[in-house]
Prior knowledge:
Blueprint: E1 8-11, H1 15-27, E2 32-35, H2 38-47, E3 52-56, E4 58-59, E5 62-63, H3 68-74, E6 80-84, H4 89-97, E7 102-105, H5 110-121, H6 126-129, H7 149-160, E8 168-171, H8 178-188, E9 196-200, H9 209-214, H10 231-234, E10 239-243, H11 250-262, E11 264-265, E12 274-275, E13 279-284, H12 288-294, H13 299-305, E14 308-311, H14 322-335, E15 342-343, H15 345-352, H16 359-373, E16 378-379, H17 381-388, H18 402-417, H19 424-443, H20 448-455, H21 459-469
Parallel strand pairs: 1-2, 1-3, 3-6, 6-7, 8-13, 8-14, 9-10, 10-13, 15-16
Antiparallel strand pairs: 4-5, 11-12
Helix pairs in contact: 4-7, 14-16, 15-17, 16-17, 19-20, 20-21
Amino acid sequence: MAHSNDPVLLVEDDIAIATVIIAALEDEGFAIAHCTSIAARDTQLASRRFSVMLTDVILEDGDGLASLSAVRDRAPDMPVIVLSAQNTLDTAVRASESEAFEYFPKPFDLDELVHAVRQAAGARSPAAEEAGTAIPGEGERMPLVGRSPAMQGVYRMITRVLRNDLTVLVTGESGTGKELVAEAIHELGNRRTGPFVAVNTAAIPADLVESELFGHEKGAFTGAIAQAIGKFEQANGGTLFLDEIGDMPAEAQTRLLRALQSGRIRRVGGRQEIAVNVRIIAATNRDLTPMIAAGTFREDLFYRLNVVPIVLPPLRERREDIPALAQHFLVLAAEDGLPRRVLSPEAMERLETRNWRGNVRELRNVVYRLALMAREERIDGESVTDIIGPELTAPTTSQGNGQDGFGAALAGWLAAENPPPGALYHRALAAFELPLIEYALGRTGGNQLRAAQLLGINRNTLRKRIGELGLDPDRFSSS
């Protein structure tokens, strides 16, 4: 096993990035050996031992991930931290499959990287502990698409739960892809050979939820003419995905909590307890916190489910992913028998500027509609407007919910401020951003990482804006 006083090996061909990493690690007392290629890496490993290796994926002479088997042969216990600008789920999963200690998409938080190196320097590599674990093939990867910072965070969280059975709670608006995340965790994780059973608790009548989940015995209630096996038993050895968990009735919540605590269930009308081995992934588009306060969702169940939270961002907060998603759906539409189409730059721009209240699901449906109805192979901007119509906007009033009230307040401010032509967007954004960041810092006691998570943005982005706005995070500290 490598010792923490051994140097760190950095394999990075971007000199600017390497310089920043070296300076940060040397400030922490680490000795650093730096090289820029796979060949130089192998020479270094043949001549000395290292406590940790940090490697980029795309190097000047090959793929740093694909060649990690040679690293494992020379230093099987050395933790490896992967850095990559190829910010896709595929890259994150490849890093996980290589038993990397940690994966950091670029740009990364330097403080988090230093912390990971400190941890890795005193840890045994997962490679030795997870040796022999089968990995899925390329064809099994799930179609989660996007390279935005928000999606990079989702990919990292997915890879962290692939080798364990921790319960996951996926939250996000309708249409953001919560079931895709659940399927990805199952298909790429250590339960992939077992069943994946999904149940939408909002689609089941309240009086049948318990029977659906736990099964029932013959005669348990009117209409129970035969024994029925519930979703828990159907998912035994695999994964049970509980969608829209926030809509589960109170009594079913109690029985679900008991099942999670004991690992045993009892069919409705039955006396015998049945042991089940199921991984739970739950999802909801609702904010459970006010439901807990109102007593409509059990707090103890929330903590049982929220072991690993994964928050999916709405599409409007990752517009940079829209082109890749649209192209992806065009390919799927063609595979489903629709005409092959190409989106012009003008058409893509119109897709990027829509609000997408239905998120990725709505975008998929729109792309399929475009593929079906467009008259030409190349879809232009006019065709997008003709086929799917102009962007619909909700009327803004001072009455109703908080969103409407905010819209009215903003409209009133804009009317009073009267920004000059061309400055409307930036003036409104600036007026809104400062109080929003102050609110997030206040809610989190000045903790920038938690504030960034609350806002749904990258920590580096928040830190940059705090500096540019002249905010002092310490004044929000609760200590």
